[in-house]
Amino acid sequence: MAGSVYGNIFKISTWGESHGKALGVVIDGCPSGINICEEEIQKDLDRRKPGTSKYTTQRNESDKVEIMSGVFEGKTTGTPISLIIYNTDQRSKDYSNILNVYRPGHADFGYDSKYGFRDYRGGGRSSGRETAARVAAGAIAKKMLSLLNIDITAYTYSIGNIKININNFNKEEILNNSLSMPDVSAAESAKLLLNETMSKNDSLGGVIQCEITGLKSGIGEPVFDKLDAAIAKSILSIGAVKGIEFGLGFKAAEVNGSFNNDEMYFNDDGKVVKYTNNSGGILGGISDGFPIIFRAAVKPTPSISKTQKTVTKSGENTEIQIKGRHDPIIVSRAVVVVEAMAAVTIADFILMNMCSRIDNVIKFYK
Amino acid sequence: MAGSVYGNIFKISTWGESHGKALGVVIDGCPSGINICEEEIQKDLDRRKPGTSKYTTQRNESDKVEIMSGVFEGKTTGTPISLIIYNTDQRSKDYSNILNVYRPGHADFGYDSKYGFRDYRGGGRSSGRETAARVAAGAIAKKMLSLLNIDITAYTYSIGNIKININNFNKEEILNNSLSMPDVSAAESAKLLLNETMSKNDSLGGVIQCEITGLKSGIGEPVFDKLDAAIAKSILSIGAVKGIEFGLGFKAAEVNGSFNNDEMYFNDDGKVVKYTNNSGGILGGISDGFPIIFRAAVKPTPSISKTQKTVTKSGENTEIQIKGRHDPIIVSRAVVVVEAMAAVTIADFILMNMCSRIDNVIKFYK
Amino acid sequence: MAGSVYGNIFKISTWGESHGKALGVVIDGCPSGINICEEEIQKDLDRRKPGTSKYTTQRNESDKVEIMSGVFEGKTTGTPISLIIYNTDQRSKDYSNILNVYRPGHADFGYDSKYGFRDYRGGGRSSGRETAARVAAGAIAKKMLSLLNIDITAYTYSIGNIKININNFNKEEILNNSLSMPDVSAAESAKLLLNETMSKNDSLGGVIQCEITGLKSGIGEPVFDKLDAAIAKSILSIGAVKGIEFGLGFKAAEVNGSFNNDEMYFNDDGKVVKYTNNSGGILGGISDGFPIIFRAAVKPTPSISKTQKTVTKSGENTEIQIKGRHDPIIVSRAVVVVEAMAAVTIADFILMNMCSRIDNVIKFYK
Amino acid sequence: MAGSVYGNIFKISTWGESHGKALGVVIDGCPSGINICEEEIQKDLDRRKPGTSKYTTQRNESDKVEIMSGVFEGKTTGTPISLIIYNTDQRSKDYSNILNVYRPGHADFGYDSKYGFRDYRGGGRSSGRETAARVAAGAIAKKMLSLLNIDITAYTYSIGNIKININNFNKEEILNNSLSMPDVSAAESAKLLLNETMSKNDSLGGVIQCEITGLKSGIGEPVFDKLDAAIAKSILSIGAVKGIEFGLGFKAAEVNGSFNNDEMYFNDDGKVVKYTNNSGGILGGISDGFPIIFRAAVKPTPSISKTQKTVTKSGENTEIQIKGRHDPIIVSRAVVVVEAMAAVTIADFILMNMCSRIDNVIKFYK
Questions:
Q1: Nearest to C363 by CA among D1, A227, A11, A354
Q2: ipTM beyond 0.95?
């Protein structure tokens, strides 16, 4: 049911296929009065765009964004913001061979089961290319959050079995190296591993960590719309993500309550602070004023040129070697997508939270 | 914004506090004609109810469910089904000492930040007691799914560092032992560990695994309403859950694509099958016809009687020892809650999927 | 889908059948900190309850409301408010004769077409009794609006062909006379007409007018969620309503633009005012700061004891005389239902509007 | 909150301003497998487009629609359908004079109250031009409905005080004459009236009637999502509509129940039929299998060149003569918009209804 619409107040509707004319998003419910221009959105799109290193697909897309509505004289008007990104380097012929074949690790078989047929060109709607529209929407959400001094930063936490060393953490490296890995030495090791993997016609996955700072306590809705639940949905909705954990995450399941609980005290500024942040900034689904920390597991790119066994739509067993232009790893390109989905979710929840107390409603209404 | 409503077509609204008069749920959008009675719902509530072993709170609640509407002559009518569970063993005095104190690991501070004050008795709305209403709704969703031959089974996968051994797997033990652990020997070890933990006034967490079998391929909606994304939200909305992973999960981030991809073939019955199920039954957000497998990390109960540092609402640093009747572990009681949330989500997505193809619409409309 | 849930932020879920155990509503998204008690809700329920005059059904229901959750120490907590009204005077035997017969003017045939069968006792879910839950929810919405100095007043505008004379308008009469008609003399004529109608075993309808004062300009959402569109839906969702018009309404279709347009000027207080209010307080779906005025057409009660031709479920032509306890007119009892639905809608839209400008978001967030 | 999104399963998101780059709509939730091409959509857009007679604005827009996504090899894929219509004849200079002035009868003042400022060019988002996107979406909904043999036909029922005579009804005239009036002689009288009105620099409104045939009984959801309530919202969301009535409508408020009730019988084919259709095809919010009939009151165009008193944003009283290219009447152009909104609503409700009975769910699932 309308699976391409996301959000409650800050609501986004995305559209477009890998090899269609264009991709886009309509953002409805963005507050009026936010200064925004195409360049700001483009900056995030450039972080996601293909062809920037040898570790990404060689498809050549400039991913140029155009604002079609909702911005007047440089400011959001409060009405729908439509963003469009034309496709320019579709080579649909590359895909004619998968018309009848279901690629392992892809949604091909599921889409055919669901819809009876599919736009097979580059995966159609199920392609990772769909995330360009998310990134465009996320850039606007981030702009709104920046006005509230909220920052969202994601980065590559691990590739294969190579993790960053927290002692080497260097935030600038996120935008500096082609793997978005904030640890130069881990990034170098990861590149060697990727080179080796590529030489075997194979692919790799990894983990993305995301930190949200500046979010005040009290954001999140009780019971079903817990902030972590909503973030989890938004992140798992990114094609290749297979798991998420907050704070201590799966390790919390192994320790004692006395260790996992974050004890609190008033600091010298009279602010409530915690000795630890095992909760990852969310308790009972509500932000506790500490940084929100989560990690997402990204599977290895399913498109590999190694031979794989599979089946055809017409009922035969077969083998496939996936040609075309594919990423040996999508973790680094997914970093900005994770930021985007977190940003849209946080923006939505901040707007929702405005209605939580009658004294705010009265103050606002006057 | 209305965080206590969940679902799109099969929609549930829960209400009630730990120490209020009652808890309940209204289910709107359940198809007509399903045979349902209070006994069937009670069965699941009994799996969650407190006081059944020494590893659960000694609060004495029968958690008796009553159908208030939506069922006529034993069958659902298609209109809202209202279920109510009266509280009978509230002892609110136990909680007067936390009126002014924020318990570590709890939502107390967040609720006060959000709403300005809170129903502090037993955690009010943020109490795990809220999940009784989910279980009641889940029982009806499961009944609907059983008519489609879909089964949902969750169990304790690990407690602390003690995991079940898959070679000892015994499904009957899920309902047999007080820890819902389908491995007798692991359950015994876990009990010893729990006894020791309790003697130290501490608590433990664990991991719940859930398997959904019988779901056909093609269920799930593209992009934001991917089936795994929706399940993730539903499971992370359970208070103590800090992480979720599907299929290989976080391990998928460490392996090669050629390993992670599930190769396919036609079996002798002409059915598409996979050599492995690393995807956990979902690809691109759409079910692939294989069992859906996920694991949820449950944190240790935050209410412990060990002394902890914390702060008061009125601005002082303080210490707290949480008395009252608390579970040393909530994993086993959460097992049926996980089943319930998965069931409500799957029921909702099956109904949504009915509209995916025009030929089905035409056939149905005639 | 899930047709018993209404609203976006201020969201209500109603449940219950005419001859079930009880009726109720869950209100999710009501801001915290509003003082509310059962007596305030009861006041509105008493205006709707049956048996208060000879012009209403003689069913004897006290319609006693009980707050089950969401209110702590007299104030809303921000979490779901559950309200319950037990049925006490069901006489289901009265209805056994319609088990197999479709009553003209009722939803019987439609419900059977949709669901395959129906709870036929007193119309089940399609009974006007369902509106008790709306009135209970409306009382809480009105309480919230009263804190913003917004008043909602509905009254009987006409019964059959007898209209109130605006020169005789007396607001106190709305609560004074049994027809809720703010014109003593029109009320007397209407009673005579009703007596005559009842003597012929027939029924009558009428028009309800509603005025919303104190609403500031700028409330309403563009395009599909126009304020008048939302009010229209909420009012047409009341069983017997067959039409609605705002301001000049259908007369606007007959006049010139120069007459219909409301010219504006600044009054001595520097406030924008209009010479006329033909718009009924809404332009382009957004409130213009003037009173919102609308009228709803209520059809005559379909349950009459006059003989009518109809059909049976089992396929025969037949005749029916509807016995039981029925209102000869439902207009006066529907007055408070109209107020309730308008109140819930306005409350919801005021909350939604809080997010419209970034400067408000920033101010609020600090 | 996201007021530009409409529908539950068949969900549309529109965007664009009168003088922006383009207008568009994203349709999410349309079933897969429907044959659709741009020409079919264009046909309806041509009925709405300006400049086709002297009774419409002379703005010269071809309103050429382009399908951007969601259609593959001529069939809908089940994923979002994005439609775009570029603006070509904006003359924004025409509007610079209203930058600071609030036009009577327009949303200018409300938008400024709500958002702090507005895109004043041609009314921006509040312009009637926004309805082009609705018509495009409606064309696809109509295509879906045509496959179920459901027809939606709207027409001009009256202009000013000139009504069609039902004895002269000629359906072909709807597309034949410039006023979409299915009565040649009434159309001639209306043209004379319009000529006279235009010569006085004034405008006129009228009533649109809409008939939906072929809809089976049982469509509509109980309580808040009654079919008539949903249609009412969809039609009142069209800018200039000030009222709606179903079947007898406001006249039902004046007659007796015995007159208003539609008696039923089995016809020779064993089908349930009604002697009358005073209900307008909907009872208790559920279709009764008879044609759905409703009428919408359209106000006179507020943009007139006659001098009107009004106020400026900067706080002065002033006068305005609205120049530019305006329709002396918008009724005829709104006819296809009414059809579109009805079509989208009916399509959505048919899809929702698929889930109403468990036997259908079981049958479908197999």
A1: A354
A2: yes
